[in-house]
Amino acid sequence: MAVHTGHRQRMKERFLRDTFDSFADHEMLETLLYFSIPMRDTNPTAHALLAKGGTLYAVCHMAETKMAEVPYCSRRTALLLRLLCECGRRVLAGAEEEKPVYNTRAALKALALELASDGEETVAVLFDNQYHLMKVFTAWRGYYASGAFRASLIAEPALLARASQVMLVSTHTNRIPRPDPYERATTRYLADSLSFVGLHLVEHFIVSGSLAKGVLEDTLGQGGAAELRENGALTGEEGTND
Fold first, then answer.
1. Cα dist. 56→11, 18, 28, 94, 206 in Å?
2. Residue 102: predicted pLDDT
3. CB 3.0–4.6 Å: which of 27, 152, 160, 207 could bond 23 by disulfide?
């Protein structure tokens, strides 16, 4: 038994240092068995349980009578393993409940607020069809609905980057972020032009301070909302900052 002197303590210290990430299945089970089988080498018992059950999951759910066929496995061992499984299930269920609910439109709006500048300009954000960010660039400086603005300023960089979706962020420094008729018309024209070359305009946000308003949704009303939902950009209600 001298060879095992301090073995349990070393295994516990290893767990505290590495968690179970560096443990093989039999080592994990061996360590758990310390709490139901005192003063004995639990390594052979762990191997025997895995040989009988096949997997850790099967061992933890093994019937008490079947587990009793393995030497030194008492009712205490069966109870310990079942308790661990049930506790783990409850913990995982709680973790799922606490996961944030990701809302694509809310995420795009938050990104738009982050990209807002100090002056009047329009930033283009390029995505692939899974909303992976590909490129961000300043497409226009000054008033967005100016007659000099052209769709090619967006389309050419987007096509070169092999993007499939575009979001625009226009900053207004001196007024509320409510799109005017010229901005609505220009955005609708741009959406149609980009669609012609295979690009989808997800949304055009007008930003002022901590507020943002989507032009497409504002322009198209319920039809626009339906279109955005169909394309994956509107997956829930927008915030109250509009």
1. 19, 19, 9, 22, 55
2. 52
3. 27
What is the value of pTM for the model shown?
Answer: 0.49
Sign (positive/negative) of CA torsion 192, 198, 202, 206?
negative
How remote is the C-alpha of 124 from its chain's centroid? 23
Nearest CA among 166, 77, 76, 74 for reference residue 128: 166
204 against 224, higher pLDDT: 204
Instruction: Give the pLDDT confidence of 79-91 residue by residue, as tens digits.
Output: 998 888 888 878 7
Nearest to 127 by CA among 203, 236, 216: 203
Beta bridge partners of 167: 125, 203
Helix, strand, or coil (residue 134): strand
CA-nearest of 97, 91, 32 to 59 is 32
Distance of CA 44 to the CA centre of its chain: 42
Contact 59, 50 (CB under 8 A): yes
Name residues whose C-beta falls within 8 Å of residue 151's C-beta, 6 or more positions apart in sequence: 189, 190, 193, 194
Judge contact between 166 and 199, C-beta under 8 A.
yes
Q: For position 113, what pLDDT does the model report?
A: 82
